[in-house]
Amino acid sequence: MRAPKAAARPVCGPLRWRPVLVEKPWGGRRLETVFGRRLPAGKRIGESWELSGLREALTPVASGPFRGADVYRIARGARGEEVFGAALLESCRREFPLLVKFIDASDVLSVQVHPGDELARARGFPNGKSEAWVVVSAETGSCVYRGFRDAVGRNEFREALDSGSPEAVERCLERVEVAPGDVIDLPAGVVHAIGRGLLLCEVQQSSDLTYRVYDWGRTGLDGKPRPLHLAEAWEAMSFAPAGPPKAAAQRRTEGALDRAIFRDSYPFHLELASAAGAARVGMLGDRFEIASFLSGRAELSGPSGRGEDLQAGDTVLVPASWGEYFVTPAQGAAVRWVRSWAL
């Protein structure tokens, strides 16, 4: 007698992760007041690492069949291709390509710069760090600093830093007022700082390589000045024109889905998606997608019908094997989320 055929293994649902909370001297409580997160009492939480493959801060899966596993354990397991896709599986086994964070800036962050891939690898690291910010909420008049003002060169910026004057340093930087929904693209090498009063969603290459250039005379959580990395920063810093301060969107409407695509080149794709009704969302098919919800509530479901109720502040990884997913807003209210994937 022929043995009965084994039942097909069910496709896994979207993967939620347990975030890593990072206290910062400039942090605040917006993750609590905006998203309803429960935060440690008395802590100034500056960053919530929603999905991380950095070894020093791995985010484990929060629930389901992969509960407790990090991205490397899943990628090296029997279902790695189902989750991450054929195009990215080997990359995910070595170095997970992306890091997604929420950043709460109750005070201005340091002026800093990140190296590109070539310089980072010359210094013994797997890759550099390009990133992009999506503004979730902003106090009136909030700003970021991106690149240098016209005609500011290496010598002028060095003199401003040597003076120690916040006003002199700020005069060198391009100040950009921002509002919710704005996207700031930051290629490696562009000097930058986040201003006070902002909650951001950040998508970046998986790297924590940050060269701090100026810290506004502030002390760290230990009461001591935080170290600067000027020698490393000068080699990484670009004085070439940094391009438009805000990223422009390519807009597409696909049924109930509205897409605003801000970046679609190495090292990642980033877009803002919104839907006021049930929307079908097509995927590339050979790689996973990260969905970070910024407003509203919705059910996110896959081809098998398996769904997950999500709200503002939730981040999930949608398995590559789904090929598509469906977002159904709660009670007909609009929902907005960041879509990102590695390229």
Can I get a quick summary?
By secondary structure, this protein is mostly beta strands. The protein has eight helices and 22 strands. The chain is 15% helix and 37% strand.
Description:
Helix content is 15%, strand content 37%. The protein is mainly β and 343 residues long. It folds into two domains: 15-236, Jelly Rolls (Sandwich); 250-342, Jelly Rolls. The strands form five sheets. Strands 1-20-17-22-15-14-13 form a seven-stranded antiparallel sheet, with no helix packed on it. Strands 2-3-4-11-6-9 form a six-stranded antiparallel sheet, with no helix packed on it. It has a four-stranded antiparallel sheet with strand order 16-21-18-19, with no helix packed on it. α6 packs antiparallel against α7 (166-172).
Spatial shape: globular
What would CATH call the architecture of the largest domain?
Sandwich
- pLDDT < 50 runs, ≥5 residues: 1-8
Could you give the distance between the termini?
Answer: 49 Å
Number of beta-strand segments: 22
Radius of gyration: 21 Å
Classify the fold: give the CATH topology of the largest domain.
Jelly Rolls
Largest sheet: 7 strands, antiparallel
Q: DSSP strand (E) fraction? A: 35-45%
Mean pLDDT across the residues is 95
Total number of distinct structural domains: 2
Q: What is the top-level CATH class of the largest domain? A: Mainly Beta
The helix/strand class is mainly beta
Strand order of the largest sheet: 1-20-17-22-15-14-13
| Helix count from the secondary structure assignment | 8
Which superfamily, in CATH terms, is the homologous superfamily of the largest domain? Jelly Rolls
Helix content: 10-25%
How do the SSEs run, as a string of H and E?
EEHEHHHEEHEEHHEEEEEHEEEEEEEEEE
